[in-house]
Amino acid sequence: MRLLVRWVLNGLALILTAYLLEGIQLSGFGAALVASLVLGIVNAIIRPVLLFFTLPLNLLTLGLLTFIINGIMLKLTASLVSGFEVKGFFTAVFGSILISLASSLLTALVSDD
């Protein structure tokens, strides 16, 4: 049940981000749910591999490279999901930051703990 709630909250975070940033577009709530599912899978499989291979550079930049990698994951998700579009690289980076903040906020509001 918690996984389903988190999935819907991440979909809402995507919708909120698309509303706030002009360069991110969603065709509807269904596209947001599919995009949040694909983003979760991409973040679980591809992101750790990228972070591992870029660890020395990430240490040199004091972790700022992580923002770039998150933007790449968002652009990759947009290329895989129809109905979800991210225009521009920096839009993807700022969008990934907003999605993270919105998701954390929504999870904190709904959390029982």
Written account of the structure:
With 113 residues, the protein is mainly alpha-helical. The chain has one domain (2-110). Helices cover 78% and strands 5% of the residues. The chain contains 5 helices and 2 strands, in the order αβαααβα. A two-stranded antiparallel ribbon has the order 1-2. α1 (2-20) crosses α5 (89-110) and α2 crosses α4. The longest helix is centred in the middle third of the chain and has 25 residues, at 29-53. The chain is globular and about 40 Å long. The model has no long low-confidence stretch (mean pLDDT 93).
Largest sheet descriptor: 2 strands, antiparallel
- H/E series, N to C? HEHHHEH
Number of strands: 2
Oligomer: single chain
As a whole number of angstroms, the C-alpha radius of gyration is 14 Å
The outline comes out as globular
How many individual domains? 1
Write out the strand line-up for the largest beta sheet, numbering strands in chain order: 1-2
Q: How large a portion of the residues is in β-strands, by DSSP E? A: 5-15%
Helix content: over 70%
Let me know the average pLDDT.
93
Count up the helices: 5
Give the structural class.
Answer: mainly alpha
Instruction: Quote the distance from N terminus to C terminus.
Output: 15 Å
Unreliable stretches, pLDDT < 50, 5 or more residues? none
